[in-house]
Structures are given as C-alpha cells and as structure tokens.
Amino acid sequence: MKIVFMGTPDFSVPVLQKLIQDGYEVVAVVTQPDKPVGRKKVITPPPVKREALRHEIPVLQPKKVRHEYKEILDYKPDLIVTAAYGQILPSELLEGPKLGCINVHASLLPEYRGGAPIHKAIIDGKKESGITIMYMVNQLDAGDILTQVRVPIDEDDHVGSLHDKLSIAGAKLLSETIPKLIANEIEPKKQEESLVTYAPNISREMEEINWELDGETIYNQIRGLHPWPVAYTTLNGKPLKVWWGHKVNAPKKGLPGQLVHFDREGIVVATGNETAIRISELQPAGKKRMQASQFVAGAQLSTDMKLGEKE
C-alpha cells in the first residue's frame, strides 16, 4: 500500500518512523519549507525532512499546498497520513487517495481543535490528554473519529514531556489503526459539536504572566509554555523569561507580583489569592537562561520590587 506522509516538527518523526517500521511503502514525505533558525538565521530543514532523507524517501516542500498538490497526487497514494503538517489540505488532495486522508491529532477531539492542543491542555490544568486518529475534512480538525487513546498528564508534566508522550502514543495508535482501516473494521464516529473547544496557536499576549491570578493558574501557565515559547514577565520594565517555577507557601504575604523572598533556591513572588510562585529558572533580557540562584547572586533585588510592572 502506498502512503504519502505529511508532517513537519519533532512530533511527526516517531509517526513517520512507525510507518516505515511497519513496512508500508512511504512513497513521499511532504513537509514545510526549510526556515532560518536561531540568531544566525541558519537555513534549517524540518525534523521530518531529515528523517525522510535518512531513509531515502522523496521530499516535497510546497509553500502553499492548496496550490501545489498535483505532484503529491502523482505518487498515486492509497492513503495520506498527516501529523502536525501545518497547512490546510485542499479538497483535491482530501479526495485523492482511495482510503482517504487521516490525521494524528494531539487531543481527545472534539476537545482542543487547533494548533496548540498540548499547550492548552496543560494551561487549563487538565489531568489527561490523548491522541485522536481522524478523517480529514475541509474544516479545522472536524472530521469523523476513527480511534482514540487517553494519556494522563502528571503534576510536573510540561509541554515538552507531554509532547513526547503523545508523539509516541500517536505512532502506536496509528500502527493499530491502519490495519483495521484497510480491513474496514472501524465505524467512524462523528464529533459531538456541542462539546467542541479550541486551542488556537499561542500568541504573545498568552505568554505574559498576570500576577493577579492565583498560584495554581500561573504554575499551569509556566509549564504550559515550557520549553517553548516560555512564559514571561517584566522586571524594572524589561522582559524576564520565566523558564520554570513551582507553587510554594510564601514566608510572608505580599501584593501580586511582589518579591517576598529570594535566596539560593530561587525568587518567591506573591500571586493572587495570597498564594506564591518560586521562580527557579529564568532569563533576563539579553542574557542566557540561568538558575534563579545565579541571578539572585548577581542582581540587586529587594522585597519592595514587583514583577510585571511597565516603565
């Protein structure tokens, strides 16, 4: 059976690897164009492209797949599998393969349709997430569900750790699903529209910490943005990335955003509802990521300072 795989970031790589391990004929891989990365803007291929080339699989990188789909259909795939590809597929592509187009989505649909389901699940303090294998249609993540698997979210999970769990779970579930799809053993299930929620891509506004919120909410925001794109606040009017922190009992109360204590273990910041967060890893503007203890040793901090204030 001929499969075209469409994916782009690290999340997609285990899914592609599993298709190859299972012996399917992956006739082509479609991924996003190479992009400049880092301060030096080095042109870098997506992770899926590197993996495809390692297996000598042809790679296509259309800028806009809705206009550049014919070359994909020239491979005459029986099935198209997508996983975090990053572009909406045109009808011509969706209707091309005889087994259709299926997607590996990182949520328990109909919850969290959109581009940031992993981030949103943690930000919302969910105790579980999951993977959905679904048919693709001309509407965002709205196709019929083929299979699902649930994945628990631990208290210390962050986007990076949950991403890895879901990526592996997605590859395994896809491996179990395709044989049943070929054998026509799956009854697709429509999504319950009344239960639909969305997880739009993370905006700059969503990254800024509001210290008026309670400690639990801020902790979920920090781990829901770690290790990318990373929560931030301001100190003396300048951006300060908050890479990691935990809820703690503050040694004394303070106004939201106020530094109430700092030592070798980090910086304790008052939050809403008389709770607190201990920042343990941070990154001042123009400097490298560092432990908060290192920052405390070199910065002139005082307990009348407040985070989040603009100059």
Layout of strands and helices, then pairs:
Layout: E1 2-7, H1 13-21, E2 25-30, E3 35-37, E4 42-44, H2 47-54, E5 59-60, H3 70-73, E6 79-83, H4 91-94, E7 101-105, H5 117-123, E8 128-135, E9 145-152, H6 159-182, H7 204-207, H8 215-224, E10 231-235, E11 238-248, E12 259-263, E13 266-270, E14 276-284, E15 290-291, H9 292-298
Parallel strand pairs: 1-2, 1-6, 2-5, 6-7
Antiparallel strand pairs: 3-4, 7-8, 8-9, 10-11, 11-14, 12-13, 13-14, 14-15
Enzyme class: transferase
Keywords: Protein biosynthesis, Transferase
Protein name: Methionyl-tRNA formyltransferase
Gist of the model:
Residues 1-178 form the Formyl transferase N-terminal domain. The chain has 311 residues and is of the alpha/beta class.
How would you portray this structure in words?
With 311 residues, this protein is α/β, with parallel strands linked by helices. Helix content is 25%, strand content 27%. Helix 1 (13-21) runs parallel beside helix 6 (159-182) and helix 5 (117-123) packs antiparallel against helix 8 (215-224). The N and C termini lie far apart (62 Å).
Largest sheet: 7 strands, mixed
Topology as H/E string?
A: EHEEEHEHEHEHEEHHHEEEEEEH
Tally of helical runs = 9
Mean pLDDT: 95
- Provide the structure class: alpha/beta
- End-to-end span in angstroms? 62 Å
Strands ordered across the widest β-sheet: 5-2-1-6-7-8-9
Radius of gyration: 22 Å
What overall geometry do the principal axes of the alpha carbons give?
A: elongated
Helical coverage, percent range: 10-25%
Which band does the percent of strand residues land in? 25-35%
Tally of DSSP β-strands: 15
State the low-pLDDT regions, or none.
none
